[in-house]
Write a structure and sequence with these properties.
The chain is mostly helical. The protein has 4 helices and no strands. The model has no long low-confidence stretch (mean pLDDT 80).
Length: 79
Amino acid sequence: MACSLQPFGDDFAFGHAEVMFDNMERLMAYINGPAGRAALPRPLRVQFGTLSEYFALLRQRLDPAEVGAAWRTKRRSLF
């Protein structure tokens, strides 16, 4: 199964966090449930996660030889 990171919200989006998370949980329940499986062309499983969890999962799935090449660290400022 492929991994995809979908950022949720922005700096000012969480003024109504309870409403946003309730809506996201409903969407996730639909996608992960029988109606979502029937409606989508291929099965998906969505869940909340942290960046650490996402990158740990990617490291598990990558060939160890690719990890060093794929995970370079930027050391200079962007500006």
